Amino acid sequence: MSTRRECQDKSSSQSEMQSDCPDPDSTSAALLLRSDCEKRWQWKEHLINGQRGQGRRRWSSAMSDHEISDDKAMWAKGRSRKCLRLGRADCARRGLIQLFSVLGGLLIVFVPDGIHRILDKWGQIGHNGEGLASWPTDFSRGILPVPCHSHNDYWRLVPLYSAIEAGCISVEADVWLFNEELYVGHSLASLTPNRTLASLYIDPLLDILQKQNPTTSFHPNGNITRHGVFDTVPEQSLTLLIDFKTSGALLFPHVVSALQPLRARNYLTRYDGKKIIDGPITVVGTGNTPFNLVTSESANTHADIFFDAPLEIMWEGPPGKKAPQRPHPEPPVYGADIEASNPEEASSSNGLGQGKSNSSTDPSAYTTANSFYASVSFAQAVGHVQRGQISDEQMDLIRGHIKGAQSRGLKARYWELPFWPISLRNYVWDVLVKEGVDLLNVDDLKDATKRDWSVKHSWW
């Protein structure tokens, strides 16, 4: 019994474990019980001290398997809490590092270092580079010209300037004659007294070119130089395509007169009888422009208005190859411009259209001396694109048109291109660019000026 009491004394703090020590009936049983209790106590002490790392010794007379499992669960739970505490500390440490990094970036923004202080304040009064932040020809600084034509440019929110900002090298103005004045608009209903050829194009171009050709002490002859509107490529000429909407014969002398401010500054491209003298502005007549007046020395005295020739008659192919059948076999009509008795009666497009007014069906009649563009409606000359794919016959037509125009020194241009769906429009654009068309007729300036114009090839 003394053995049992000793066992109970050792396990007094764990009374629930007394059931593990049986009641002995003999001395030998008591000895065995004592030995068993001591072994269990030693194992428990080893478990607690070794695995949990605690210095506290638990005395027990006996321990069941269930209690051992509970102890292991308690140890695992304690370890999880410890890991959680370590995880929170690590997250807090990483968060502080990130916070300091962000604060450091903000410090640079709001309190810039030496180089950033110079860049931010460059050219301002009292700072580095005072008075050096701009140049006299900064109007189109950084704009790269691309071969696109701003179709119906006057319709844009900001005519002319939007096209120049996008890099277009050609703009279009539809001109109507009323009361000795040239008005710009798409139709009679859209005309307003303040939208004239002078207010929308002549005067702005004159102002731009005067800025691009300043007169200074270093450059005293600013009126002699002929830098164009693009500062990056000053030799690039901007084409002003004037679409004659009323009678060409009546309109022509008024257009010649309206161009005089640009002509006086030597800003217009012209033909001097032997060669082309390039200028910052090249004027081309289309629509009802009469070809016979363009080639007339008395009407076009300065030879600075050029013609938009008919591209459809210029097809050329490889030797021995015949021109493919046109999608519209009926021949285009060429003839004399219909004149009205007075400007007011010429209130609609009463001519024959682009390239057909008093013009010739002989392709050799169109040279660089009198023409600049060679244009045609894509829908009429090439046809509709079926199933989203240009056919082989249509491709032959395109290649022959481009070759025929370029062999005469003219720039090939298609108007009335498909515009919907966008995927079809982009496909046609890509084909024309790859085939070497000189100018892309566009309404969407931003998309057009993002095209890669460097990929060109000639199949023939």
Structure explained in plain terms:
The chain is an alpha/beta fold. 37% of the residues lie in helices and 13% in strands. The protein is built from 13 helices and 11 strands. It has helices at residues 2-10, 27-51, 65-110, 114-121, 161-166, 197-212, 248-258, 260-264, 291-294, 378-381, 392-407, 422-435, 445-448, and strands at 146-150, 168-178, 181-184, 238-244, 270-271, 276-277, 281-287, 305-310, 371-377, 411-415, 439-442. Strands 1-2-4-7-8-9-10-11 form an 8-stranded parallel barrel. A two-stranded antiparallel sheet has the order 5-6. Helix 5 links the parallel strand 1 (146-150) and strand 2 (168-178). Helix 1 runs parallel beside helix 2 (27-51). The termini are far apart. The relative contact order is 0.08.
Question: SSE layout and pairings?
Answer:
Blueprint: H1 2-10, H2 27-51, H3 65-110, H4 114-121, E1 146-150, H5 161-166, E2 168-178, E3 181-184, H6 197-212, E4 238-244, H7 248-258, H8 260-264, E5 270-271, E6 276-277, E7 281-287, H9 291-294, E8 305-310, E9 371-377, H10 378-381, H11 392-407, E10 411-415, H12 422-435, E11 439-442, H13 445-448
Parallel strand pairs: 1-2, 1-11, 2-4, 4-7, 7-8, 8-9, 9-10, 10-11
Antiparallel strand pairs: 2-3, 5-6
